[in-house]
Amino acid sequence: MSALTFDKSELGNLEYSLQREMLATDRIGGYMSTTIVCCNTRRYHGLMVAPIDDSDRTYVLLSSLDETIVQHDQTFNLALHRFKGVYEPRGHKYITDFKYTPTPTITINTAVPYINRFARRISFGSICLFTSPIVGFSYSFPK
Question: For 8, which DSSP code?
Fold first, then answer.
């Protein structure tokens, strides 16, 4: 069961989804923070934000990830970025579900045969031996 639940019918509505944020920390000063549609709306948002030296400052090491699916001469841009007065490339319109158990999982439906529905998982944490922040992306395609 997901600890965070959202109205699935509202995920494509930017007024709704841009007001809902996710946060994961690695307990050594790093974090991942963005909206549930992966659109950075704040200065400190990023998929990998971490200290890289002994100062108290953190640095955005990975701001966002632009994913594109190309199938049968059709292109589906899955990213969403905020520019002055406009949001592009509007990849949020393919999101059909969001869960945060145990990591953020975003279900995407592009209506393309063979890859029409898949899930993107974002994992953030640290490597215990080296105490370095890591971020991982995995994709699962149902059979």
Answer: G
